[in-house]
Amino acid sequence: MKLKRIAYSSGEPAGIGPDIALYLALAQASQPSSAELVVLGNKQLLQDRAHQLGLDVSLVEYDASRPPQHWPLGTLLVAEHALAGTVTAGELNPANSRYVLNLLDHACRGCLQGEFDAVMTGPVHKGVINDAGIAFSGHTEFFAEQSQTPQVVMMLATPGLRVALVTTHLPLSQVPSAINQPLVESVTEIVASALKQQFACPQPRILMCGLNPHAGEQGHLGGEEIEHIEPAIRDLKQRGIDVSGPWPADTVFQPHYLENADAVIAMYHDQGLPVLKYRGFGNAVNITLGLPFVRTSVDHGTALDKAGTGAIDIGSASYALETALTMVTE
Ligand SMILES: NC(=O)C1=CN([C@@H]2O[C@H](COP(=O)(O)OP(=O)(O)OC[C@H]3O[C@@H](n4cnc5c(N)ncnc54)[C@H](O)[C@@H]3O)[C@@H](O)[C@H]2O)C=CC1
Ligand SMILES: NCC(=O)COP(=O)(O)O
């Protein structure tokens, strides 16, 4: 079988994204025999970080014209991108924001054009990218826009729980007006189809959260359930999708409900993700559903306080890599 070529965009240079690449190169479990990992990043930065961490990693320049191959433990293949400013672990420098975006551009273009079979993203710092004058709300939205995909879905998964979101990086004040019946339906359809095709759930069972406390309490605590979410559920059921709700979010995340479900759909970021991270932080993956390519990501952020210290956990990165590989080989 042909080896898969997976891109790892190493993200914010002052964060732990580069450290993750170095530790992955040294971890047997993270060197799958069926894939070649290409780190999109900067060789000097990786060399400096390896030195800071006391790691012995051999950096090899990536050549896109050569077929993927299996590299020995301790070797890291690097697709070179130039930095614009100095990098100090833990200290953000807006001068490097364009570099971060260049990594994502390469990843997206490479996946669309067949250079890469999938991308796993390292963490970026959304704030510093915006500080540099570049509007950016997240990888999810960036990859959707770059690949001209009108609707994608953010789903995080850890063993025993998958949580997908109707809205992603939106100020809380804008969430209620963003929720409407067509959006709830299209998100649910993407989740149901991905569960079937990419996650081996032949008959996906989906639990849908309400937006308001107690799912609106029959309209006494908010009207979005009656106006948008319930009609969407009725339509989806008529189309054969096994979805129930709207459930109060403080009820549905109980084992009693979750044990009979393949995914929960939450209405907004902080309704679903804290539960997911409480259950599986460090052993969870973020997946963008609906893109024309496979994109997975770590479940955490830039961890600026840990960059260059060696006190990091690469569990989520390993899981994200493994998930990407499973998704491209299925
Ligand atoms: N996939 C991505 O690109 C994501 C990026 N972010 C960005 O990260 C930035 C910082 O976000 P925070 O809320 O501080 O979350 P964070 O995940 O960076 O850090 C929260 C805490 O967890 C620790 N931590 C995180 N990952 C760790 C790891 N692998 N090993 C050991 N400790 C780890 C950190 O040291 C910190 O104490 C924000 O700008 C945010 O936008 C946040 C989530 C995902
Ligand atoms: N909390 C997860 C998160 O915000 C990651 O977003 P994205 O950069 O993957 O879109």
UniProtKB/TrEMBL annotation:
It comes from Pseudidiomarina piscicola. Catalyzes the NAD(P)-dependent oxidation of 4-(phosphooxy)-L-threonine (HTP) into 2-amino-3-oxo-4-(phosphooxy)butyric acid which spontaneously decarboxylates to form 3-amino-2-oxopropyl phosphate (AHAP). Its cofactor is Zn(2+); Mg(2+); Co(2+). GO terms for cellular component: cytoplasm. A divalent metal cation binds at H169, H214, H269. Substrate binds at H139, T140, K277, N286, R295. It catalyses: 4-(phosphooxy)-L-threonine + NAD(+) = 3-amino-2-oxopropyl phosphate + CO2 + NADH. It comes from the Bacteria. Binds 1 divalent metal cation per subunit. Can use ions such as Zn(2+), Mg(2+) or Co(2+). It is an enzyme of class 1 (oxidoreductase). Homodimer. The keyword NADP applies. Pathway: Cofactor biosynthesis; pyridoxine 5'-phosphate biosynthesis; pyridoxine 5'-phosphate from D-erythrose 4-phosphate: step 4/5. This is 4-hydroxythreonine-4-phosphate dehydrogenase. SUPFAM superfamilies: Isocitrate/Isopropylmalate dehydrogenase-like (SSF53659). The active site is located at the dimer interface. Pfam families: PdxA (PF04166). NCBIfam families: pdxA (TIGR00557). HAMAP family: PdxA. The gene is pdxA. Its EC number is 1.1.1.262. Belongs to the PdxA family. Keywords: Cobalt, Cytoplasm, Magnesium, Metal-binding, NAD, NADP, Oxidoreductase, Pyridoxine biosynthesis, Zinc. One of its GO terms (biological process) is pyridoxine biosynthetic process. It is found in: Cytoplasm.
